[in-house]
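ingest -> validate -> predict -> emit
validate: passed (alphabet ok, no gaps, 310 aa)
predict: started
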Amino acid sequence: MKLATYRDGSRDGQLVVVSRDGALAHYATGIADTLQQALDDWNFIAPQLRDLALTLEQGKARHAFAFDARQCMAPLPRAVGWLAPDDDTAEPRPWRSDALWGPMRPLPAVGGSADVGPALAVLCGDVAPDADAAVALEGVRLVALACHWRRAPDGDAPHAPWGVTVAPCVVTPDALGAAWREGRLTASVTTAWNGRKLGIAEGADQTVSFGALLAAAARGRGLAAGVAVAGGVLPTPQVAGDPPAWPRGYATLAMRRAAERLTLGREVTPWLTPGDRVQIEARLPDGSAPFGAIDVVWAAPPHNDGVTAG
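emit:
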């Protein structure tokens, strides 16, 4: 089952069910108005959403319409929390959960420098305190594709969490088939920067499984329905050598600049700046792209010619 949230002028948007191929959608009106409402009562609401999804797939949904990712907010615009590890540890920490941006929403019109951070994430139901990894993994309700943005307002190396952009659709683990296994997703995540490929990362190479991440996040406190846990920046493969090589490119600009220091002795690639465009997409082994694409432009700051109004 695939779900998305359409803009309707409210803060939480309107929940829609999306067909497997991403061509059609149907409002979930009468079942659940928002995704948070569905997560809060998942065992009761999810079967009804599945019935609607089946009707949509069979071509029997009378009020189906063409799905348009441009109308999407983040699937869960106001997550209870967005947690992500800062490094390769299994310790997810709060990210800026007040800044979950839709898949095509321009980045805020401010200056400085920024970097991308493609990641997979899961939206969970209630997870009991101190649940082990296997039990915690059972709390996964939906899988998402996201990008963590880091920014430095002074143009130096981006380091501060800025916000999170989320792809238009979230998908139940069963709909991912064999690609979802033991808390990891086998998917190739491609990041493009201004129309050029930055790199292809592999979801199966995620450092820590989602079961372990959820267990760590739930330690001593549990997790409430609507919490999102991200898996951290996805790695790209490195081939040992002198110098080493990265045949599939880089997940972030920081990784690319670090590679340039090793191979060229200096950094050549700039950071993201206003006006740049970033596109991220995840494809499963069967070639499908279940989450849709992230496609954002960093808006340029308003022009200031030095003239003060008034």
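The two ends are 55 Å apart (CA to CA).
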